[in-house]
Write a structure and sequence with these properties.
Elements lengths: L6 H14 L6 E17 L2 E22 L7 E10 L4 H17 L31 H16 L4 E20 L4 E17 L6 E9 L8 H14 L9 E7 L1 H14 L2 H6 L18 E4 L22 E5 L2 E2 L6 H7 L7 E2 L5 E2 L4 E4 L5 H11 L3 E8 L9 E12 L2 E14 H4 L4 E2 L9 E2 L3 E9 L3
Parallel strand pairs: 7-14, 13-18
Antiparallel strand pairs: 1-2, 1-4, 2-3, 4-5, 5-6, 7-19, 8-9, 8-13, 9-10, 11-12, 14-15, 15-16, 16-19, 17-19
């Protein structure tokens, strides 16, 4: 069976779409997915698993007409959906019947509805997301073995927690009663290593990874293992810092959390539900004027790239924050209707779509890391370097932010001893307008940030 032409799924999709076409169904969409994956894992020189899998799924979403209660009853749409891996005609027919009955019991929503035929994407571009070559199991095993050996050979490392290599391919088709017919094939290659330094109460673990659409674009396995090992060893013997008010540099992989918080506040669902700190602040500076928050679904080989969104609309590059100000919300069809705006083609989560990001990044950071370090503490070079955040402590309505953290002390503009067992807190509306962004932006995941320097956070640590 070809990944480009998985005929059992095509047949199942045709059966499902035909089954939904009757007077009791207003509209429907059918999504099929064929997913194949190959993975291996080693730990402390031993193979823990080598697996291969192939999965099929069929998802059906039905929008049915229901009458609202009350003296001014109207006919509105309600939705329900279901998924099966059994592609037999009988199972599909039974699933359609159950979904149709569930839709009649679901709450009506005047904002529901598929895209109009003229809104659908025409000739979407190819984004080079399908690696034509599938690695052999031995290739993945070699990567695992190399990471395991290099990590354990590093001075200070006492064990390898894991060394993993994975490759997957997904073929998706999306058909709907509005005429939508779309298919895509994507691949994902990944390697990761987690290393242990120290023992017993002094044990520290850290990790590194690389993700890419094409295997050849992965970072070298040796580099991933070395970075994971170095990070673990550097964390040995941490102490809690004293409670104070401090500047903090967030390294890129934790700084990305601030971008996710901003995107969440710019989400159309949050705006319509009143759960966003951006409501009433459309004209306020949220970021420094030279910084922009950009969502780019059309980046070639991007880990979250998509030429067509989950509702069949052609995607486009979107600037959520421009010149420091909130410029454009993330909108699917339903949230756009509620806000009386045009959709931004940011529907995610096929089957029951909602607004979401694709390849999100902060643009405009231009300060060398050394300069950021020297500028901390009002030019004294004093502060903290944050490598890990734990737990969840963010209020999307007020902007209050509080997280347990770990990292390093910054002294005289240099990274010093490791620290842990403390909490950082502040309000995102107070500290984002004055943050400083480094020049070290790299596109390694779906959400990418440079290093960020945040001023005047409250640090709760040792008394």
């Amino acid at each position: 069976m070809s990944a480009q032409n998985p005929s059992p799924l095509q047949d199942a999709a045709a059966i499902a779409l035909a089954a939904t076409q009757n007077p009791r169904t207003h509209s429907a969409e059918i999504i099929t997915l064929k997913h194949t994956a190959l993975s291996c894992k080693m730990r402390n020189g031993k193979r823990e698993e080598i697996t291969a899998e192939e999965n099929y799924s069929l998802q059906i979403r039905i929008l049915a007409e229901v009458k609202t209660s009350g003296s001014t009853s109207k006919t509105q749409l309600a939705e329900a959906s279901g998924t099966t891996s059994d592609l037999s005609p009988q199972t599909i027919s039974e699933l359609v019947s159950r979904i149709r009955e569930m839709a009649k019991l679901a709450p009506p929503d005047p904002a529901l509805g598929l895209a109009e035929p003229e809104q659908l994407a025409k000739n979407p571009p190819a984004l080079n997301q399908n690696d034509p070559d599938t690695p052999a199991p031995q290739q993945l095993l070699n990567q695992c073995q190399e990471m395991d050996e290099i990590g354990r050979a590093t001075s200070g490392v006492t064990a390898s927690e894991s060394a993993e290599a994975n490759f997957s391919r997904s073929h998706l088709t999306h058909r709907a009663s509005n005429g939508l017919e779309y298919s895509s094939t994507t691949t994902l290659a990944a390697i990761s290593a987690a290393m242990v330094a120290g023992e017993n109460a002094d044990m520290q673990v850290d990790w590194e990874s690389s993700l890419a659409r094409h295997s050849k674009d992965l970072e070298p396995a040796a580099d991933i293992a070395a970075k994971a090992a170095q990070r673990a060893v550097a964390r040995l013997n941490p102490e809690p810092p004293k409670s104070t008010t401090t500047d903090a540099i967030f390294e890129p992989r934790v700084a990305a959390g601030f971008l996710s918080a901003l995107a969440g506040a710019a989400n159309g669902e949050a705006l319509t539900r009143g759960t966003s700190f951006l409501i009433g602040r459309e004209e306020q500076k949220i970021l420094p004027e030279h910084l922009s928050l950009i969502d780019d679904p059309l980046r070639e080989k991007g880990l979250a790239s998509k030429a067509v969104d989950a509702e069949g609309l052609a995607t486009k590059k979107l600037t959520l924050f421009a010149s420091g100000t909130f410029a454009q919300p993330l909108l699917d069809l339903a949230s756009a209707r509620r806000l009386k705006r045009e959709p931004s083609a940011n529907a995610s989560g096929r089957g029951s779509p909602s607004p979401g990001t694709s390849n999100l990044h902060l643009h405009g950071g231009n300060i060398p890391l050394e300069t950021l370090l020297q500028s901390m503490g009002g030019g004294t070079g004093e502060g903290v370097w944050i490598t890990d955040l734990f737990g969840f402590g963010f209020n999307p309505v007020t902007g209050d932010w509080s997280r347990a953290a770990a990292g390093f002390k910054i002294r005289n503009g240099q990274r010093a001893e490791p620290i842990s067992g403390f909490t950082l807190a502040g309000n995102i509306l107070n500290f984002l307008p004055t943050l400083k962004a480094g020049d070290d932006l790299k596109f390694r995941t779906a959400t990418n940030s440079p290093s960020l320097l945040v001023h005047n956070l409250t640090l709760a640590g040792a008394s």
